Amino acid sequence: MSRLGAWLPGDRRHLSHWLRTTRAAIRKHGAAFHPIVREFQQLIEDDPVLRMYFTRMFQEQPHRRMKAVWGDVRVKNYLEMLEVLNHVLTHAPEYNRTYMVGCPINAILDCPMITPTGLAAFADERVNAMLRRYLAVWSEFLGSKRSRAVLNDSPRGWLSAHARAHLHLEEFQTDPLAPYLGFKSWNDFFIRKFKPGRRPIAAPGDSGIVINACESAPFALQRRVRASAAFWIKEQPYSLRDLLAGHIVEQFVGGTVYQAFLSAKNYHRWHSPVSGTIRKLQHVPGTYFAEASSEHFDPVGPNNSQGYLAHVATRALIFIDADDPRIGLMCFVAIGMAEVSSCLLEAASGHALREGQHLAKGDQLGYFQFGGSTHCLVFGPKVRLRFVRDAHPNAGAARW
Question: Quick check: is 31 in a domain?
Fold first, then answer.
C-alpha cells in the first residue's frame, strides 16, 4: 500500500523485518533504560488512568487483521514499547530502498494509537510533555558525531550508490574529500542545503507569484475556510481557530488553505513564499503521535490524517504581511508529525527569525531539524490562487 511521502515503507514486510531485528538487538544487548525512558515508565505506572490507557491500547489492537494486512508489526505491550524507545535513542535511522526512514516510533505505534484508548492516551498533555522531552534527547544524539555511523556506503548506508541516486545528492552542498561528505551529524545530513542555483525563485520581479515554500506535493486545497469546523471528521475540513491556535483568525475567515507534504528523500528547509514583513511568530505545542479516528485501522491512516494533524500537532506559525497588497497578510504553518516535530525558525544566516524582519521571496524561514512533514499556506478571503507550472522542479508557484 502507498505510504504518502515515503516516511514508512510501502512494503510492510520491511517494517516487520525492522521490528524483528530490533527485538533481537534488545535481547542481545539488554541495555538498561535511559533515565528519560525510566521517567516515561514511572509516569505510566504511577498514574492509574495512564496505566489503564497504555495497557488497553495494546489489547485493543485487532491482532488477526493486523497480521493479515499489516504483517507481524505488533508491539505486545507498553513494556516492549519502552524497550524499543530505549533502543531507538542511540540509533540513527538506516537507509533502505523502501524508505523506512526516521519514524520508527510512529511505526510501532501506528496501530495502537488509533485504538479508542490510544486516541485518548496520545492526546493527554502529560504524555505529550514526556514525548517532547524524549524526542529532545533523541535529537541530541542525532545531532552528535556518533549518529554519523549510518552515513556510509553499505547497502543500508545513506551514502550508498542507490541512496545517492534517489536522494539526488549531487544537487546538495557536500565535501567529497571529507569524511561523511563533510556532514557533522545525521541531523546535519538531513537538513542539507542545495547548491547555489538549485532552488531558483519563480518570477522574482513579480510580486503576484507565490512560490512553493517547501519541496512538497499537494495534499489539499480548501477555499472559503470557516472559523470553526469539525476537523476530526472524515473530510477533515480546516478550522481556522484550531489551525492557527486562535491567532489572527478573523482576517482569514472565508479564505484559502493550501496544504502539501514533504517527501522523506527531499529537501527539508522552508522558504518565504512571498516578499513581506514578519508580523507574528508563534510556536504551538501539540500532539506528537496522533491520527484522525475516522481513519480507523488503515495502514495509510497517518498519512491521510494530515488535515487533522494540522489542527492538533506541534507546529510553528509565521504570519507575513506581503509587500503586494493584493496578497496582504498570509500565514505559513510548519506542522511536525510524529518524530518530526522540531520546527526551528532560522534564517539562512543562522540567526533566529524575528518579528518585524523583512523577507525577500525565497528567503529561508527555518527547517524541520529531523526530517520533514507537512505545511499549510493560509490566505485571506480576497486572494484567489491559480496554480502554474514552472520549468524547474524546485520552483513550483501559484499566482494570486
Answer: yes
- Residue-wise pLDDT tens digits, 391-400: 455 555 555 4
Q: Are residues 242 and 375 in the same domain?
A: yes
* pLDDT recorded at residue 301: 45
Q: Are 232 and 293 in contact (CB under 8 A)?
A: yes
**Nearest-angstrom CA–CA distance, 104 and 276:** 38
Query: What pLDDT sits at residue 233?
Result: 61
Check whether residue 213 and residue 82 sit in a common domain.
no
User: What average pLDDT does range 199-225 have in this prediction?
Assistant: 89
Position of cell 529561508? 364
Residues 217 and 137 in one domain: no
User: Taking each helix axis from N to C terminus, what angle separates 35-46 and 78-88, rounded to the nearest 10 degrees?
Assistant: 160
106 & 216 share domain: no
Greatest Cα pair distance, the chain, in angstroms, is 63
Q: How many CA atoms lie within 13 A of 230 on its CB side?
A: 5
Q: d(Cα 229, Cα 91) in Å, to the nearest integer?
A: 41
Per-residue cell: 243: 489551525
∠ at Cα 253 (305, 352), nearest 5°? 70
Whether residues 231 and 123 fall in one domain: no
The identity of residue 46, as a single letter, is D
What distance, in Å, lies between the first and last C-alpha atoms of the chain?
A: 36
Kindly state the DSSP code that residue 252 receives in the 8-state scheme.
G
Domain coverage including residue 372? 209-399
pTM score: 0.86
Contact assessment for residue 210 and residue 400, using Cβ atoms and an 8 Å cutoff: yes
Q: How confident is the model at residue 112 (pLDDT cuts 50, 70, 90)?
A: confident
The C-alpha angle with vertex 42 and arms to 40 and 45, in degrees rounded to 5, equals: 110
| CA gap 365, 363 in Å, rounded | 6
Nearest to 113 by CA among 266, 301, 270: 301
Our measurement of the distance from residue 41's CA atom to the centroid of its chain's CA atoms, rounded to an integer in Å, reads 25
